[in-house]
């Protein structure tokens, strides 16, 4: 699990991600949650973000409670970051994305494998 690679005290014994996994140069995709770019690494840096495109956070078994993911928007437009289908970000309505402005980053804490808490950079 992502977080277990960052801090072994989270208690997970297996992982699909390795410490330091980074996707740099990612391209945002789709115009909604179902067609957005699927985030698969702990750290994802988007360098190409067309207007209206986005990314979707992973769901269990890829992540579990206490896993943290970092997303950076180095593209030219706002990046929509969606929770997994049916999930919520910071207790918002299900399936509503966080909007990550150009040049900003965000950390997402997985609460239960589907829902996340979002810490957006100012």
Describe this structure in words.
The protein is mainly β and 122 residues long. It has one domain: Sandwich (Jelly Rolls), CATH 2.60.120. It has 1 helix and 9 strands; from the N terminus they run αβββββββββ. It has one helix at residues 2-6, and strands at residues 22-27, 37-38, 43-48, 54-56, 68-73, 79-82, 98-100, 105-110, 116-120. β8 and β9 (116-120) form a beta hairpin. The termini are far apart. Residues 1-19 have low confidence and may be disordered.
Keywords:
single chain, 122 residues, mainly beta, Jelly Rolls, 4-stranded mixed β-sheet, 1 helix, 4% helix, 34% strand, disordered N terminus
Write a compact overview of the structure shown.
The protein is mostly beta strands. It has one helix at 2-6, and strands at 22-27, 37-38, 43-48, 54-56, 68-73, 79-82, 98-100, 105-110, 116-120.
Which sequence of SSEs, written as H and E, runs from N to C? HEEEEEEEEE
How many strands appear in the DSSP assignment?
Answer: 9
Q: Summarize the biggest pleated sheet.
A: 5 strands, mixed
Strand order of the largest sheet: 1-3-5-8-9
State the shape: globular
Walk me through the topology.
Layout: H1 2-6, E1 22-27, E2 37-38, E3 43-48, E4 54-56, E5 68-73, E6 79-82, E7 98-100, E8 105-110, E9 116-120
């Amino acid at each position: 699990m992502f977080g277990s690679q960052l801090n072994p005290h989270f208690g997970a014994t297996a992982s699909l991600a390795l410490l330091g996994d980074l996707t740099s140069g990612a391209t945002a995709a789709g115009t909604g949650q179902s067609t957005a770019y699927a985030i698969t690494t702990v750290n994802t840096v988007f360098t190409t973000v067309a207007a209206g495109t986005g990314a979707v956070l992973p769901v269990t078994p890829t992540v579990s409670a206490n896993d943290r993911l970092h997303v950076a928007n180095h593209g030219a437009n706002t990046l929509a970051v969606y929770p997994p289908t049916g999930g919520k970000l910071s207790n918002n309505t299900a399936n509503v994305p966080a909007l990550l402005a150009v040049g900003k980053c965000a950390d997402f804490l997985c609460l239960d494998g589907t829902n996340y808490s979002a810490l957006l950079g100012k």
